[in-house]
Amino acid sequence: MNGDATFLGMPAFPANAAVAVRDSQLRYNLRKATHTIRGKRAAAVGELPDWAELRRAGKEIKDHTLRNLERYLVRMEEAVTAAGGHVHWAADAAEANRIVADLVKATGETSVVKVKSMATQEIGLNEALELEGITAYETDLAELIVQLGDDRPSHILVPAIHRNRAEIREIFRERMADWGRAAPEDLTDDPRALAEAARLHLRERFLSTRVAISGANFMIADTGTLVVLESEGNGRMCLTLPETLISVVGIEKLLPSWQDLEVFLQLLPRSSTGERMNPYTSTWTGAVEGQEFHLVLLDNGRTNVLADEIGRQALRCIRCSACLNVCPVYERAGGHAYGSVYPGPIGAILTPQLRGTASKLDASLPYASTLCGACFDACPVAIDIPEVLVHLRGKVRHARVERLGMRAAGWVFNRPARLARAQRLGGRLRRFVPGRLPGPLSAWTDTRDIPDIPPESFRDWWDRTDGGVQ
Amino acid sequence: MTAAGSRELILSRIRSAVAGAGEVEITRAYRTSPDPVRATGLVELLAERVADYRAVVHVVDEGEAVATIAAALARRGATRLVVPEGLPPEWVPGEPVTDDPPLSAAELDGVDGVVTGCAVAIAETGTIVLDAGPGQGRRALTLVPDYHLCVVRAGQIVAGVPEAVGRLDPSRPLTWISGPSATSDIELNRVEGVHGPRALEVVVIR
User: Phi/psi of residue B115, each to 5°?
Assistant: First the structure.
């Protein structure tokens, strides 16, 4: 249904991007959406005189937490347990899915409502639950659009950003009835009407479903508190009404103390939706108001990322998606080309580190960037994405022809005499250099011109003219 | 239900991953306490920022509060109102619905609205925070009804987020509310009114 599984086996980023940029509707939708949000974010960030100081504190709090992650995770576990919650540890996706499925089965329920969560998308939870006979209903509007449309998410904050209002109307009209209450007969493509249709579609489900699954934006180690930021109220519905709440949270979501929230509740809303504050933030500690509460702490590759001295800064990410919204590559290629629930610049450094670079797609992701640096400027926790991209490029195995070329170039550049001979040879053969290179070398000339070779090198010119005097 | 080894496995992976990494000091050079300039005009700033979210805002003197609330409820045509325990009884006219015994979700869905106080309000962001204390009730009361009228007293208003975090108790379930329910999921344009209360009305007592 919500088909993260279809990301598997995708071709490399350049092939996906080449297809995506020919989709003019997609490019129009993305351009409109990303430019809208860029302006809002810039205004919301510009309003705070101490943004640079908040950003610095955000970066340092995250780095400090990651450095002391073991201590803070254990403290989190103690605090949640003391407050009546249950803590589970999942080393990988399969284990997390099994824990959640078993917890749902223990309640006797066969359906759950879900708050939008990147962690549960990453582990393919909905598909895993489906195999166990449990239906997961997405309740965030954009997730609902993706789920109803048998689609894949293409943005961290707004998974259906690739859809415009007319497409959303069609999806609602055709598919809502299969999942519950049908869309109204006279549904228009007015965003208000579409939001209203979602409200009606999910209302009864919220009031009657007894198990909910969420992620969390932050966990506070000192107090055992979980924090969820949202806009629609679907999060509050899921966190508040069901009898059992299961939260699946990546281990890097920790903050040491309650006070640290004062930084992140300023950084996150302004960076993600460009608002002074998102409509709703819920915080809870352990089992509250008679609810049963389970926290599943998820590794799934995060400790691999942590082990990389340069790459580990990706774990600071608070999933605001500001880097996607400012990225010229994302704006044109769209989120699906990245072949992961984490698209855009952050996805290009997070996915290859979480999943490794064994597949062609994952090995291509560090190159899915022009290294322009807009992502770094926009990042509220100062992740130097270009630095990590370059670092990862050095780690992936390069094509044979590229390695041979580099070795040859190294041999030539190693001795001035060799370079001079190569330059003179090049100057004599310059007329025979083709516009496009053959075979595997064509990968270079598909997107670039071969530079003109000058008739003589600078050194030869200098010798011949005595530095331009003659 | 955790496999016996997973906890130890994760913790040991972390230990070896960060072995030898340097400690990181945290510099908090951002604003944390109200400066004299911001401490004045908090009521007006809050009112302006809440209104930016397209909530209805009234700023009144103590003596006008009851009449303002009554007029708001009448305009809305809200007669069946839920009130949490501890709300000043004069704030809601007639015979309000109480949450004792606790109302079911369906019952809450059937009322016209809810009237509450709050724990803290943040002027800079136009945010109201409820902590399930007296006059606020459990979280579902301000979630299921489609209309929420919230009364804020001047003494509950702080300038910025750090001051609010400092005043709040994390052991209580908190709901931070900034305007009515909204979504930006369709073409990243903000639309008010999805699953939470579609109408938020705030009465600020100077």
Answer: -120, 130
- Domain contains A418: yes
A171 in Cβ contact with A145 (< 8 Å): yes
In this predicted structure, what is the pLDDT of residue A39? 94
**Domain match, A80 and A131 both:** yes
Angle at A308 between CA A302 and CA A314, to 5 degrees: 55
CA distance A244 to A108: 11
CA A425 to chain centroid, in Å, comes to 48
State the Cα–Cα distance between residues A288 and A266, nearest whole angstrom.
26
Is residue A348 in a domain?
Answer: yes
Range of the domain at A429: 413-464
Q: Are residues A121 and A226 in the same domain?
A: yes
CATH number at residue A274: 3.40.50.10420
Counting residues of chain B whose pLDDT is more than 70, the rounded percentage is: 95
User: Do A356 and A362 contact (CB within 8 A), yes or no?
Assistant: yes
Tell me if chain B has a CB within 8 Å of the CB of A431. Answer: no
Q: Are residues A32 and A133 both part of a single domain?
A: no
Half-sphere exposure of A379 (CA within 13 A, CB side): 24
Shortest alpha-carbon distance between residue A230 and chain B (Å): 9
Q: How far is B28 from chain A (nearest CA, A)?
A: 6
- Give A263 to chain B, closest Cα distance, Å: 8
**Span A42-99, pLDDT tens digits:** 999 999 999 999 999 999 999 999 999 999 999 999 999 999 999 999 999 999 999 9
N-to-C CA span, chain A: 76
Q: Which of A327, A287, A318 is nearest to A37 (CA)?
A: A327
Q: Give me the pLDDT at residue B4, please.
A: 66
Cis? peptide before B101, omega within 30° of 0: yes
pLDDT in tens, A150-160: 999 999 999 99
Q: Which among B2, B195, B197 has the least Cβ separation from residue A99?
A: B2
Shared domain check, A239 and A132: yes
Work out the pLDDT band at B3, boundaries 50, 70, 90. low
SS3 state at B151: strand
Where is the domain boundary, A397, A421, A456?
A: A397
**What CA–CA distance (Å, rounded) separates A134 from A244?**
15
Please check whether residue A160 lies inside any domain of the structure: no
- Can you point out the beta strands (E) in B71-170? 81-83, 97-98, 113-116, 120-122, 127-130, 147-153, 157-158
Q: Choose among A246, A263, A243, A266: nearest CA to A255.
A: A263
Q: Would you say residue A165 lies in a domain?
A: no
**Whether residues A227 and A365 fall in one domain:** no
Question: Tell me, what's the pLDDT at A9?
Answer: 77
pLDDT band at B36 (very low <50, low <70, confident <90, very high): low
Interface test with A, best of B35, B186, B192, B200 (most A CBs within 10 A): B186
pTM to 2 decimal places: 0.92
Cα distance between residue A42 and residue A322, in whole Å: 10
- Into how many domains does chain A fold? 3
How many residues are recorded in chain B? 206
